[in-house]
Amino acid sequence: MKMERKILKGGEYLIAESSCEDIFIPEEFTDEQRQIGETTEQFVTNEILPNFEEIEAGNFDLVVEAMAKAGELGLLMMDAPEEYGGLELDKATSMLVGEKIAPAGSFSVAFAAHTGIGTLPLIYYGTEEQKQKYLEKIISGEWCAAYCLTEPGSGSDALGAQATATLSEDGKYYILNGTKQFITNGGFAQLYTVFAKIDKEHFTAFLVERDFEGLVVGAEEKKLGIKGSSTTQIILDNCKVPVENVLGEIGKGHKIAFNVLNVGRFKLAAGVTGAAKMALVEGVKYANERKQFGKQISSFGAIQEKIANLTADIYASESLVYRLAGLLDTKLASIEKGIDNYYEEYQKAIEEYATECAISKVFCSEVLARTVDEVVQIHGGYGFVADYPAERYYRDERINRIFEGTNEINRLLIPGMILRKAMKGELPLQAEAMKAFESLMTPSFEELDESVPFAAEKQLLANLKTLFLILAGSGVQKYMNKLVDEQEILLAAADLAIQIFAIESAILRAEKVGPEATERKRRLLAAAVKVFCFNATEVAASAARRGAFYLEEGDTLTMLLSGVRRFTRYDASGLLQAKRELAQGAIEDEKYLF
Q1: pLDDT at residue 169 in the model
Q2: What is the structure's pLDDT at 518?
Q3: Where would I find the Acyl-CoA dehydrogenase-like C-terminal domain in this sequence (predicted)?
Q4: Active site residues
Q5: What is the value of pTM for the model shown?
């Protein structure tokens, strides 16, 4: 009999110990899930890659055709309810599809926008009539969907939107005016989720069809990357929207905007993880082909170190994504199907892990950034030339740290949401911070139990959690409610929280896989954990030092810095061998190892 997973609340990973038995890992995919992943890969191979250059050149007719074919294969209906023709699959499967679509390049952006922020507002907040009218068209690919939140003057400040909605004299329509900026799928979508303020006050969402009077599609933006995706303005010029097309409650548009973005961030994390795997393989293959000084460059330690670091990073990225998928799936499975307020409870479950969704977006997009940068470097001058895919990877990557909320905004959200939970009494952060301060004043003589898998890494993890609590506690003590205005301190706290979640995800996955794995895989997993823990601890230590200098001075600062040194100590003996083993594995297999 399978034991139920113990599920932590959002943010609770910082104060509680997780067991490897309680997390989901990619090695646990069912045959059905793997089949859906393979179907997605075949779709990319058969439908996208033969038309890749034309799509990149802006032939959006091909994008629309491919979307319809994706609909025929069921790839657009992962999250849609069964009663409307959807598959209503779990988040792990949905993320797997998002990961496998990544080699489609710009098409994957159109796909992600359609299946995520384009479709989910209707699923979560639509009335029965709205779903009957629009959902089948969306999930079949007959219509494409877009999401219109950003405006020229309000990027990260979504609630600062200026678009207005005014009820017509006959009470049948809302008249929308304003301009929406950077709308993915804007050029060919048939249904737009548009946010505007009724009477310049009540922030509300509307379902707007392309053919509604007064909707004007702007010119295509000329972009740095993702050139095969459509990005336009949507101009609302006295646009007439029937009153029955109000989505959700009047004045509650912020709930739709933010809750849907949580899933959007998570989907982006899965997509960029797939893109990072693809880019890494391209770099490894090139390193095996390219010769300098009479040798393949893959034989040089300088190249091998890059390959090892990237492999470890991507392993952590993948581990984090599917751990979060497991958390969400376990939480969502506890909601009784068929209850009247099902999607209200569903949204609460998603919102519970808003912190982890933000973490996944930041961490995974920055792993992709490092990956494409190093892949260009491995290519040398050829990486700068458009004949090689490394150049496109580099350009396409950049947007991921901007959309779905910039990484800076997401970093600020992470400690902000954790602190809010603590203030509401949902996380006992204050009590745990007091214990952490006590441990700072108490010397530790604990010895590692070498019989415990990954003992050194687990001790490091516990120490990093203690360090986070010390710094967060110091921040609250000094600034109280005004801590929310100290962005530099919040950013440092976020970096620490992000690395802790990634390190823990990497360790727990390796521990869970271990007993079932081949000896080679166990060695590679151990190597990946060691390499990642070393690199991530350097990032965490730097963040903690920044936080200490931002918060204190004098003797208190000295004490904090002493704590940083103590709690970021990690015995990474065998690090060079671990890097060489990871690199050799990737070079021999010419694929992502895990």
Answers
A1: 97
A2: 95
A3: 463-566
A4: 404
A5: 0.97
Nearest to 163 by CA among 211, 195, 118: 195
The structure tokens listed for 394 are: 């580099």
Structure tokens, 369 = 């950034």
Per-10-residue mean pLDDT for the chain, 594 residues long?
Answer: 72 96 97 98 98 97 98 97 95 98 98 97 97 98 97 83 96 98 98 98 98 98 98 98 98 94 96 98 98 97 98 98 97 93 94 98 98 98 98 98 96 96 94 93 79 94 97 95 96 98 98 92 97 98 98 96 96 97 98 97
User: Is residue 531 a contact partner of residue 312, using CB atoms and an 8 Å limit?
Assistant: yes
Q: Three-state DSSP class for 570?
A: coil
Token representation of residue 255: 């709930």
- Under 8 Å between Cβ of 159 and 258: no
Burial profile 527-556: b = 16 or more Cβ within 10 angstroms, e = fewer? bbbbbbbbbbbeebbbbbbbbbebbbeeee
Q: Which of 509, 496, 584 is nearest to 545 (CA)?
A: 496
Q: What are phi and psi of 110, to 5 degrees?
A: -60, -40
pLDDT (0 to 100) of residue 448: 83
- Terminal CA-CA length for the chain: 28
Beta bridge partners of 217: 234
CB distance 240 to 168 below 8 Å: yes
CA distance 493 to 7: 24
CA–CA gap between residue 81 and residue 96 (Å, rounded): 19
Q: Spell out the domains of the chain, with CATH numbers in brackets.
A: 12-143 (1.10.540.10), 146-247 (2.40.110.10), 408-589 (1.20.140.10)
Contact 180, 149 (CB under 8 A): yes
Q: The tokens of 265 are what?
A: 């961030």
| Distance of alpha carbon 352 from alpha carbon 357, whole angstroms | 10
pLDDT of residue 2: 47
